[in-house]
Amino acid sequence: MAEYLSQYIPYWIAYALIGLIQAGLLLALMLVTVAVFTWVERKVSARIQDRLGPTRRGGRFGWLQPPADGIKLLLKEDLVPKNADAFFFRIAPYICFCTTLCVFMAIPFADGWVAERLNTGIFFVLAIAGLGVFGVVMAGYSSGSKWSLFGAMREATQVISYEVPMAMALVVPVMVAGTMDLVTIGNMQAGWFTNWFIFHDPFTFIVFWVYFTCAVASTNRAPFDLPEAESELVAGFMTEYSGFRWAIFFMAEYGSMLVVSCLAVILFFGAWNGPIPVTQFLGLTNDLHPIAGFAANLLGLANCLIKACICMTVIVWVRWSLPRLRIDQVMATCWKYCVPLAAAMLLGAMLWSYAFPAGLLFRNQAFGYASEKSDVMSDIKNGKVARAEKGGRQTWK
Amino acid sequence: MAIEKIGRNPVEQDVYTDEMLLNMGPQHPSTHGVLRLLLRTDGEIVLEATPHIGYLHRCAEKIGEKVTARQFIPYTDRLDYLASMNMNLGWALAVEKLLGLEVSKKTQHLRVIMCELNRIASHLVAACTYGLDLGSFTPFVWAFREREKIVNLFESVCGARLTYSYLTVGGVTADLPNGWLGECEGFLDQFNRSVDELHALLTSNAIFIRRTAGIGVLSPEMAIAYGCTGPVLRGSGVDWDLRRDGDPWYTQMYDGYEFDIIAETNGRYPNYQDYPPIPSVAVLGDCWHRFYVRMLEVMQSIRIIRQAMDRYSSADGEVGGPVKIKEKLAKGQVYLETEAPKGQMGFMVVGNGTAIPWRTRIRSSSFCNLSVTSELCRGCLIGDMPAVVGSLDIVLGEIDR
After folding, report:
1. Which residues of B touch A148 (CB under 8 A)?
2. Nearest-CA distance from B33 to chain A in Å?
């Protein structure tokens, strides 16, 4: 798109414009999903608890509750406690929020529909998501309250501990795919739902549950929400935050829930490929007409988002069903259960791929990239690797 | 490396770390009222927990010296406000013993119905705010749904939903309305299913067990030494319940009723096969057992209520009304303890021939139960504090009076 425009306007304006549009789209996607999910959480939790949830803002279903909450929070008093370190207190929420938002740059929602197609997509996602802990520790330390400090320390320990089994669990589908590029991983799961990586071998199936546990833990959702434990630390590291600063933390938490859900969907549940390959049946590909390709991608986007929303709803469901684990139990779960299990599954998946390189039962020769494995040498030969062109721009064919 | 074992957690002694003085409360979501717990901690491990009370002191005992015995009933409501009927009963029985006033059998059966219903309501709050402290939000709402039905029953009887002032000196303020017994039976019929749901969400939940089993173990000797009563005492295995072992003036109310005292004898609870099994990690006297005792007591209360309703319907005579407001109290002193949901509540009246008592004294069950906190909390983690304090089921209205 940017190269197309750069025929008419200077290339740097084209790139800036396209960048802004993509950033705007990503921001819109994330923020709208987050807002909708605050509503979903309240409704789902209410129904689980045998009550109704918001029913006044916006008719019978209260769907205008999120904007109403947002406006209320904006109008609250901007409070910085006297004992707080003002600079860090102010900047901490934005660090949490921006790191979560930056992760969306590398996450594809349909074939080729990604802000920046990185061939180290997973690596980028994990690295940037891990920066969020800085914001949390800063928030807790600078609040000037012992309870906030406690919450921050617990949070820091928890998040960085759970990054280890999460990364190990994510290595399994990466290994099955042979690439870290999220778009390629998505394309490899085209076809029937049996092509999804979660059904590739039993080890990947089990490692999905390990990943799910670690994802819930790293986003501080119950049963691992000790840093925000209401009954113990009021709100942990967020205790001294009120008004819109708190809303930023809140959005960061839901944003990271969306991130881990999208990762789960892309790596395990076929990304934008539905259980039934409808687009192939209808023949909607780019060969037919660009509009058909666009329509196929739109369906893929819807598919991806619906699956991510289902994953997020399960996370919400789990939160309202289970009690909270104590911090030492959280650590024990990580180091004594998740890490060995993830390592064992990694070993098992490795051996499986060695024993059955073309898959065992479920890999059918469907359409598209069903059994294509990314191979750098063949990519180079086929001209799929980026070449340095004049001006150093990358192009993907 | 010098490692000293405090409680269950080894503490490294040669790395010098400052001890932290943490204040939990008085405003705190999980300290069941305005309780201030001063914690001296070494990191996450609590070295000492000192409860500071008095934030809810309302001079109840002094007020007892200014109003007549019947006028004091609303003040007893506000002691353990979650079990007002039991508080009313304790005071009413004490004054009736001083006056030598025996109420009719029908009144006694009615009193049993009310007290046991309130026991169910109080235990529902206790069990599910306990779950709330530990992070389990849903059973709280479900239990309050059931409690709503009980409170509606009480509302149709006396008009109040929390502080009833219903059981008074001489009987009750008014007899049951028509159809009340049928509604009560309807409630009891559907209540078993709710209790099963609560068992599934809490008692048998692996995370709940991990948070409560083996935590805050109270030995029977320590429980007796500190004066703990009620589910706290029975959760440590001591078979003692005032409804069976108490003052005859009180136990005559429960004469002839068939119910089990929920205390573990020979490793088993009565009718253990009907309830979720005891997990292997649970130790007698820990938080899980105290919680389990409350859940089982609810089932026993249902049994008692059904029997009481039958006896009430078949009893002759009238339900006693309240005595005259300015009824003169005999000279003398009476101290009577009753089995309230949270433990043994004692009421002492000293009469001097006038209508107004010379002295009233309230022995609070939660006060003695709370006193064991500092012993139980030594060596546990901060995350265990809500677990321990919640399992003691304290209510500050009673402690501070």
Report:
1. none
2. 13
Distance of CA B61 to the CA centre of its chain: 20
Distance CA A267, CA A173 (A): 6
DSSP A73-125: HHTS-----TTS-HHHHHHHHHHHHHHHHHHGGG--SBTTB-SS--TTHHHHH
With CB atoms and an 8 Å threshold, state whether B134 touches A231.
yes
Kindly report, residue by residue over A42-61, the tens digit of the pLDDT: 999 999 988 888 888 888 88
Name the closest residue on chain A to residue B139, using Cα atoms. A49
CA-based nearest residue in chain B for residue A227? B383
pLDDT value, residue B246 = 87
Q: Rounded to 5 degrees, what are φ and ψ at B75?
A: -70, -30
Q: What is the pLDDT of residues B171-196, one digit of tens each?
A: 999 889 999 999 999 999 999 888 99
B60-357+383-390: CATH topology is Cytochrome-c3 Hydrogenase; chain B (1.10.645)
* Residue in A247, A225, A227, A229 with CA at minimum distance from that of residue A96: A247
Average pLDDT over residues B64-79: 92
Q: What is the pTM of this model?
A: 0.84
Does residue A64 sit at the B interface (CB-CB below 8 Å)?
A: no
The answer to whether B384 faces chain A, any CB pair under 8 Å, is: yes
What whole-number distance in Å separates Cα of residue B144 and Cα of residue B189?
A: 17
Beta-carbon pairs below 8 A across chains A and B: 76
Instruction: Tell me the chain A residues in contact with residue B211 when contact means C-beta distances shorter than 8 Å.
Output: 323-326, 329
Distance CA(B294)–CA(B126), nearest Å, equals 8
Is A317 an 8 Å CB contact of chain B?
no
Decide if the complex's ipTM is over 0.95. no
Cα–Cα distance measured from residue B35 to residue B213, given in angstroms and rounded to the nearest whole number: 24
Q: What percent of chain A has pLDDT over 70?
A: 84
Query: CB-based contact (8 Å) between A159 and chain B?
Result: no
Please tell me the predicted confidence (pLDDT) of residue A282. 73
C-beta of residue B274 within 8 angstroms of C-beta of residue B268? no
At residue A368, the pLDDT reads: 37
Q: Is B149 on the interface with A (CB under 8 A)?
A: no
What confidence category does residue B90 fall into, taking pLDDT thresholds of 50, 70 and 90? very high
CB-nearest partner of A329 from B22, B29, B210: B210
CA atoms within 13 A on the CB side of B18: 3
Asked if A323 lies within 8 A of B205 by C-beta distance, the reply is yes
Does the beta-carbon distance from A48 to B138 stay under 8 Å?
Answer: yes
Residue type, B94: A
Q: What is the largest CA-CA distance in chain B?
A: 77
Is B135 an 8 Å CB contact of chain A? yes
Contacts of the segment B187-191: beta carbons below 8 A, 24+ positions apart: B187/B149, B187/B150, B187/B153, B188/B302, B188/B305, B188/B306, B191/B120, B191/B146, B191/B302
Q: Write out the two tokens for A43.
A: 């409704």
Among the residues of chain A, which ranges form H helices? 2-5, 11-48, 65-74, 86-103, 121-129, 132-142, 146-177, 182-188, 202-218, 230-233, 243-268, 278-282, 290-319, 327-332, 339-355, 376-381
CB distance A328–B133 less than 8 Å?
Answer: no
Least Cα separation, residue B237 to chain A (angstroms): 27
Question: Across the interface, which of B137, B205, B384 has its CB nearest the CB of A320?
Answer: B137
